[in-house]
Structure formats: structure tokens, C-alpha cells
Design a protein that fits this description.
By secondary structure, this protein is mainly α. Helices cover 56% and strands 4% of the residues. The chain is built from 49 helices and 9 strands. The strands form 2 sheets. A 6-stranded mixed sheet has the order 1-3-4-5-2-6. Strands 7-9-8 form a 3-stranded antiparallel sheet. The N terminus is likely disordered.
Length: 876
């Protein structure tokens, strides 16, 4: 904003840049150690309480005091200038009034002070423009008062009085506007974006653990007065590891911690407790929990607004990182990796939780490797949360049972050390599950099966209502009352002992992705539920269903209900589940529906499914070609390949007539390159030309040399030599050299397309001297590629680096590297690595070389010498 400033301090007050004000405030406050605004308002409090002044008198008194300090020109004036610039630039007078509210808890006084500051507009024109209209912000101040009062109480709990709350606590306390998208103030050294406020709420505003998905505990029948909302906490081994991560973050590093454990084992509660040390810090720590419209979409949309001193809360991280083939999860994982590496935006703490099965899915290499970025993000970051308390944990628990009767009850009644599960109400849930009526049990089983087979966490009631009757025998259905659905809902949704029920209703909203079913399509149908109603299955029962119903194939009615009512984003995964169980008709139906709703991958699967059935029917191919979404070049290319494989020439023509070349996104250029090749294979010369006219090479990012190499080869395959040359020049000069595997692929591609000059340019950047050595397999592959282009100096340099420093933790990778070294003639480096093997735990490989097996028949000594012969008799 531009402020009307005519006084001596105009240079400091005329600032549209909040950072400048922050800098002034921080520097001056550090030297003076005083909050000048607070001092003035404290004087004002005494004045206002001792008189009954008119509004005009209040305005005049405040204006004079501010003017006196500013005109003095001393250090207090400098502090006040910075504070005013910050306050006026951000939220006018509301922070000042909020400070008074914290210190005195007086709404009337708060209003009078804010109104008085607004009156400075006429009395003191240096700051008049900034204060104009400040009274319009009073409603927001009043809404924030509860948060401010909570901050005051928190300070009192820590042994502080209201008069000793420091400026950082006060600043944190007034940041409520952030959650509603309002402008914010906070002493952030390097904002992530000059045009957007940092995301997240200040930790001082977060007093409700349940808002962050911490499980509600069981309730006592007669709880004592003053019992906290959460049971007293018993730290365990995983808490110590998590605390170490927090200490590293406090020291200025950006870190991620992933708590891996079963449902209701205490993962989210541990993360909540880990926030404690950050709440005590003077820095303005925030917490950001992205959830809408979907977790992954929310996180990607605003990740660039994450600033320093932010905790990113990824509870149930599979919803952020495992998003199917839409690429959101991988894009988010890559962006989070970049954030952790960006020292200019740190420190940042990412707290994530995962069930073990999701951890395995995200971190286990597979083909195709759909979780490569997630695996790199998570690797080495797991903190295991055990299912049960250890004997040592139980002893620590017993020491606290006198403080919290819920702990005493858990200590007495929990089985097998499963304290957290008991506190989360698991025994109660299981008891209600076991005692459910047949119709209610069928409803629950439909929910369990829907979740484990591919539905998201929010289950449409229409789906469950349509599926549940098919789980019943004829006799059970005949005995089921007409109001069975309402009875089942009453049973499963009723909380017990203070914990949510088996299924929790989700706040209703507009119906999403609903398709009408044909009349009579369901032989057993209950009453029509309200449109759009959704329910969430309790986590523990979700996990219980995955374990105990893993080999149960649901009945036909379940699959027809999915086809009619499942969310569009779940249809393909559900189709995969059906096809994997041999239910080809149900799989085809689900793929067909998904294709109609824009899922390109489902279209490919539909064509392949019909092909595998040996059917010559081209209707599936026709359906897919006419309806597949054209935005994703990967799906369009794969569908072309599938159609070509079954010789569906007419359907290829249908797809080409829709002009995919003009419609596909260029956001992933190497996928565009693959589409170019597929278009050439089906003879679509005009489509190739259209796509090349859009110049995909100009859009490719150079941060991934592997993908750049793939695009080069595709462009070369379709004879787009001008684009090959342009991309080769860009890549050789500017591509990142952080990954030997990717650099190797680019080097090979440059050689294959004949870009000799660009090979030389890339080699001049000395990749052999710069690539990391943490993966011996990739280092070996790069050695061979350098050898193939006769870059022997680079071969020698990389071989020497590898021999001295390459990581030896992967035996198979080491074998490959040693073979590559032998192939390029680096015999000396082979010997050096072999000598390093025993110290790295590679003695079994060490004895395979030369005469080592004969020399070290009885092993080695710690100093590397040959061990003397020994027998059983030498052992004690």
C-alpha cells in the first residue's frame, strides 16, 4: 500500500513492503528491547479507566501520544515506526486492539482503542491513510478474541503472567485471519511468495487435537473435574526418535518424519505431542494441514506458499502420495523433496503417518515405477510405532495412572499391551461389530470390502445401501425388517464411550459423480437414501477388514452397486480388483464407466481386457476411442498401441479424428514424445506434424536428464531433427548433473541421435567429477556410457572417485560396478574397491576375487591381516 506521509519519518512509513517493516521492527526492537505500542496503550488503559472520556478525547489523546514518540526521533521512535508500518500495512489497527484484548480482556476497551487509532486519520496525516476504515475490522477482532484468550491461558499455564507475554506470542495470537485467506503478519525472514500469504495456522491457534485427526479417547462414566481432552501421555521409543528430528529442525534444518504403524497405535498423537517444543520457540511456527478438495490437490495448489517455520501435517500420507496414475502424488512428492532441499525456505518439518501396508506400497520398487519420487522422499525416514507397549512402557504407564483414570482403566483392561488401541476405543468398536445384527453386519462388510478393494475413505451411502442386501442369505433377507437401513445406520453411527461409531457420517454436500441405475438392476434394494450422503469407516475396522477379509470375494450385488454408485476416481482401481479376481464382466463394466467419465488409463485397460478374453468384438475399442480423455499423452499413446495390437484400424481412425495432437497437454514432454512415436506407428503423419508444431521440446524442463534423453530419442524417431538439435543444445549446456543414472541416459541419447558437439559440451561440464556416488549400479552404467563415447579421461576420473568413495551398501550394485570397471580396464580401481569390501560388510564378495578365498580360509583380523587357523576347541 502507499501511505500518505509528510512527516520526518516518511521514508520508513511509506513502505508497501512488509519485509522492510519487519526488518526495521526486528532490528530496533533487538536494540531497545521494548514494545513501544504496548507501552503507549498501557498508559492509555490507565487514562481510559480513570475517566469517562468522549470518543473525540480518546482519539486526541492517542494521536498526541503517537505523535510525541514519533517526533522525538529517538530509538523508541524507530521501533514505533517499524511497528506501525507492519501493522498498518497488514491489518490496520486490529493488532493493536488485539494486544489490549490479551492484556486486559476488555471488549469495550478494545473497541475504543481501535476506534481511537482510526481517528488518527484526521489528527496525524503521516499514518492517516493506513488507519482509515480500521473500525470496519472490529468484527474480525471480536471473532479472534477467543483465540487470544486461549493464548493468554496458555501463557498462564506456562507460568507467565499476561503482562509478560512476549511479542512473538502476541504476534502468533493475532494471526487468525490466515485461515480465511486474510493478510497476515509474522516475523518470517524470507516469505515464499511476494503475492501470497504463507499457508497454515500459528501453533498458538491450534488447541484442538481432534481437528488434526487425533483419535478421540474413550470417555469415563464419571470423569473427574479438570480432566484433559486427551489422556496423559507416556513417551515411548519412537517419541525419542521423533524428538531428535524436531531438535534438528529447531537447529535450522528441514526434515521429514514418517510414523509407520497400524491403526490406533498412537502415530497421530505422537505427532501432536512433538509440536510441544515448537510451541515454546520464539519463532512464529505454523502448521498447515491441506485437505480440500482432495489432500494431494490441496497440497500441490499451495505448496509454494509454505514458508519458513512451517509444519506440514500429512496424516494418512497415502492420500497425498498414492493417488493412482494421475501423477498428483508423484508431483507432490517431488515438490516436497525440493522444499526440503531449499535452504532458503527452511526450516520446515513434514510430519506424516502411514500404515505399514501403505509404507510398503510406496517404498517398494516396481514396474512400472509409479512411486519413484515418493520412495526417494520417504527412504530412511520411517519411525516405527509398535502395536503394543513394551514392559518398560507399561512400567512408565503405571507411574502415571494416578494422574489420569483413563490410563488406569487401560492398564487394567487392555490386552497384550495394546494401550493406545484401548484408549481409542478399539475394544468397544470390536464388541459392537461382533454383536451387530445380520443386516447391520452386511452393511459393515460392504464398507470394509469397498475400502480394501479400492474405494476412497468417503463411502457413498447409496453404495452401501445397495450392496448390503446381497451379503445376506435368502432366509436372513426374508427376516429383515423394512426399516433395516435406518436401523443399521443408527447402530453403526452411534458414538459409544465418547468415541465415534463404526461408521461416521461425513458432512453432506452436493451429489458427486452419481449415475442412475436401470430399473430393476438390483434384486434387493432398501429405501432410497438422501443424495450425496457419505460415511467413513473407523480406521481400526478398516484395517481389520483388510486382514480378515483379504481372501473374501464380495457377491454380485456388491459389484453392481460399485458400478452404479462408486466415485469416478475409484472406478479404475475397483475394476483392477474385479479383474484380479477373475470377475471379467464386472471389471469391464467398471472400466467402461470410468472411461465415460474421462479416465484414460481405464480406456486402455478396457481394450486390453477384451483382447485377453479372445473376443473379436470391437465395441469396447469403439467405446474407448470415442470417449477417452485427450489431455494425457500417456493414455492416448497407450490406447493407440492397444488398438494397433488388436488391429482395430477403424477405431484408430475414430481416435485420430478427434485430433489428439491438438488437445494433449504438453506438461510432461517426454510422454508427448512417446505419443509421437505411437502416432508414427499408426501412420498418422498429419497428427505427428500437428504435435511437432506445438514444439514439445521447448516445454521440457531440464531438471530430469533421463526424461530429456527419452524425448530426444522420440523426436529423432519421427525425424524432427530441428527440435532434436535445439533440445540437445539446451540440455547439454544446462541440464542438472545430480543423478548419474539420468546423466547416463542423456549421454546415450545424445550419442544415438548423433549430437557429437553436444556430447562434448556435456562432458566439458565434468559430470564424472560432479555426480553423486551413492548408487554403485548407476555409477557403473555411467562409466560404460562414458566409455562408449570414448571419453577416457572422464572414465578414469569417475573410476578413481568411485574406487575411493562409492557407497558399498548394495551388493548387487557393487557387483555391477566392479564388472563395469573391469570392462573399461580400470583394474587398479577394481582392486581398491575389493579391499574396501570387508569393512563394509562385503566379505562374502571379497573372497570371490583372486586368491582371497585361499588366503583367508579362516577369515581376517580387524586390522585386515589373515586370521590364524582355529578350531572348535579354540572357542570358549
Amino acid at each position: 500500500m502507499v501511505m500518505m506521509a509528510t512527516g520526518a519519518y516518511a521514508p520508513l512509513l511509506i513502505s508497501g513492503n512488509t519485509d522492510s517493516a519487519l526488518l526495521v521492527t526486528g532490528a530496533a526492537t533487538a536494540s531497545v528491547g521494548a514494545n513501544v505500542i504496548t507501552e503507549i496503550l498501557q498508559d492509555g488503559v490507565e487514562y481510559l479507566r480513570g475517566h469517562e472520556p468522549s470518543l473525540a478525547e480518546i482519539e486526541e489523546w492517542l494521536a498526541e501520544r503517537f505523535e510525541q514518540v514519533l517526533e522525538a526521533g529517538d530509538s523508541r521512535a524507530v521501533v514505533l515506526q517499524g511497528q506501525l508500518a507492519l501493522i498498518f500495512d497488514a491489518i490496520g489497527a486490529s493488532q493493536t486492539a488485539s494486544r489490549a484484548a490479551i492484556e486486559h480482556g476488555d471488549r469495550v476497551l478494545q473497541t475504543e482503542l481501535a476506534t481511537g487509532l482510526a481517528g488518527l486519520g484526521e489528527r496525524f496525516d503521516d499514518v492517516g491513510a493506513a488507519l482509515a476504515g480500521a473500525h470496519l475490522k472490529l468484527d474480525r477482532i471480536h471473532c479472534n478474541l477467543d483465540v487470544l484468550t486461549a493464548a493468554q491461558q496458555t501463557a498462564a499455564d506456562r507460568g507467565q503472567t499476561s503482562n509478560t507475554i512476549n511479542g512473538d506470542h502476541l504476534t502468533n495470537a493475532v494471526q487468525v485471519g490466515t485461515v480465511h485467506g486474510d493478510i497476515t503478519i509474522g516475523a518470517q525472514a524470507q516469505p515464499p511468495s511476494p503475492s501470497a500469504s504463507p499457508v497454515g495456522l500459528f501453533l498458538a491457534q491450534l488447541a484442538d487435537p481432534f481437528a488434526l485427526e487425533v483419535h478421540r479417547p474413550v470417555e469415563l462414566q464419571n470423569p473427574p473435574v479438570g480432566l484433559g481432552v486427551l489422556p496423559a501421555y507416556v513417551p515411548r521409543e519412537h517419541d525419542a526418535r521423533l524428538a531428535q528430528v524436531v531438535r534438528e529442525v529447531v537447529a535450522g534444518e528441514s526434515r521429514i518424519a514418517v510414523l509407520v504403524g497400524g491403526s490406533s497405535t498412537g502415530k497421530t498423537r505422537a505427532c501432536w505431542e512433538a509440536l510441544g517444543p515448537l510451541r515454546e520457540r520464539p519463532e512464529p511456527w505454523r502448521l498447515w494441514h491441506p485437505i480440500h478438495p482432495t489432500p494431494a490437490e490441496a497440497a500441490l495448489a499451495a505448496l509454494d506458499q509454505v514458508g519458513a517455520y512451517t509444519v506440514i501435517w500429512l496424516n494418512e500420507a497415502q492420500f497425498y502420495l498414492d493417488t493412482g496414475t494421475n501423477g498428483l502424488g508423484e508431483r507432490l512428492a517431488a515438490s516436497l523433496r525440493d522444499l526440503l532441499r531449499d535452504v532458503g525456505r527452511g526450516p520446515v518439518l513434514i510430519l506424516a503417518t502411514l500404515w505399514p501396508e501403505y509404507w510398503t506400497a510406496l517404498t517398494t520398487p516396481a514396474k512400472p515405477d509409479v512411486h519413484a519420487q515418493a520412495r526417494e522422499l520417504l527412504a530412511g525416514q520411517a519411525i516405527t510405532v509398535p502395536d503394543a507397549f513394551t514392559p518398560e512402557d507399561l512400567r512408565a504407564l503405571s507411574a502415571q495412572t494416578g494422574q489420569d483414570p483413563r490410563l488406569a482403566e487401560a492398564a487394567d483392561d487392555a490386552r497384550d499391551g495394546q494401550i493406545t488401541q484401548y484408549l481409542a476405543g478399539v475394544p468397544v468398536l470390536m464388541d459392537r461389530y461382533d454383536k451387530a445384527s445380520p443386516a447391520t453386519a452386511a452393511f459393515i462388510h460392504a464398507a470394509m470390502d469397498a475400502r480394501r478393494l479400492g474405494c476412497g475413505p468417503h463411502l457413498p451411502l447409496a453404495l452401501l445401501a445397495a450392496a448390503a442386501p446381497s451379503y445376506l442369505t435368502d432366509a436372513q433377507w426374508d427376516q429383515t425388517a423394512d426399516d433395516w437401513l435406518q436401523s443399521a445406520l443408527d447402530y453403526v453411527a452411534t458414538p459409544c464411550n465418547g468415541i465415534p461409531g463404526i461408521l461416521t457420517p461425513i458432512k453432506p454436500g452436493p451429489a458427486r459423480n452419481r449415475r442412475p441405475t436401470s430399473a430393476g438392476s438390483l434384486s434387493r434394494q432398501g429405501p432410497e437414501p438422501m443424495p450425496g450422503q457419505q460415511y467413513r469407516l473407523a480406521d481400526y475396522l478398516d484395517q481389520h477388514g483388510r486382514l480378515h477379509r483379504a481372501e473374501h470375494i464380495p457377491p454380485i450385488g456388491f459389484w453392481t452397486a460399485l458400478a452404479a454408485h462408486a466415485d469416478a476416481t475409484d472406478l479404475r482401481a475397483l475394476g483392477d480388483a474385479a479383474w484380479g479376481r477373475g470377475l471379467s464382466r464386472d471389471a469391464a463394466q467398471l472400466y467402461k464407466n470410468a472411461t465415460a467419465l474421462g479416465d484414460g488409463a481405464a480406456a486402455v485397460k478396457l481394450v486390453r481386457l477384451v483382447e485377453e478374453l479372445g473376443s473379436a468384438d470391437r465395441q469396447a475399442a469403439e467405446w474407448a476411442a470415442a470417449r477417452v480423455a485427450l489431455d494425457n499423452p500417456l493414455h492416448v499413446g497407450r490406447l493407440l498401441r492397444a488398438l494397433r495390437r488388436v488391429e482395430a484400424k477403424e477405431q484408430v481412425a475414430v481416435l485420430l479424428a478427434r485430433d489428439p495432437a491438438a488437445n494433449v497437454s504438453l506438461d510432461i514432454p517426454f510422454r508427448v514424445g512417446q505419443l509421437l512415436v505411437e502416432l508414427r506407428e499408426v501412420g498418422a503423419v498429419e497428427q505427428v506434424a500437428v504435435l511437432l508444431t506445438r514444439d514439445p521440446a521447448a516445454n521440457v524442463s531440464l531438471d530430469n536428464p533421463f526424461r530429456v534423453g527419452e524425448l530426444l530419442l522420440s523426436l529423432h524417431a519421427v525425424e524432427a531433427e530441428e527440435q532434436v538439435t535445439a533440445l540437445a543444445r539446451r540440455a547439454a549446456a544446462h541440464v542438472a548433473l545430480e543423478d548419474p543414472h539420468s546423466v547416463r541416459r542423456l549421454l546415450d541419447a545424445l550419442r544415438e541421435v548423433g549430437a557429437v558437439e553436444q556430447v562434448a559440451v556435456l562432458l566439458a561440464r565434468e559430470p564424472a567429477a560432479n555426480v553423486p556416488l551413492d548408487n554403485p549400479y548407476h555409477v557403473g552404467k555411467l562409466l560404460l556410457s562414458l566409455h562408449a563415447v570414448e571419453a577416457e579421461e572422464h572414465v578414469t576420473a569417475l573410476a578413481r572417485r568411485a574406487a575411493a568413495h562409492v557407497a558399498l551398501g548394495d551388493p548387487h550394485g557393487v557387483d555391477w560396478l566392479l564388472e563395469a570397471l573391469r570392462e573399461v580396464g580400470a583394474v587398479e580401481q577394481v582392486a581398491m574397491i575389493v579391499q574396501r569390501l570387508p569393512a563394509a560388510g562385503g566379505f562374502p564378495n571379497f573372497i570371490l576375487f583372486g586368491t582371497n578365498r585361499e588366503r583367508f580360509t579362516f577369515g581376517r583380523e580387524p586390522d585386515g591381516s589373515v586370521a590364524a587357523a582355529w578350531t572348535w576347541a579354540d572357542l570358549i
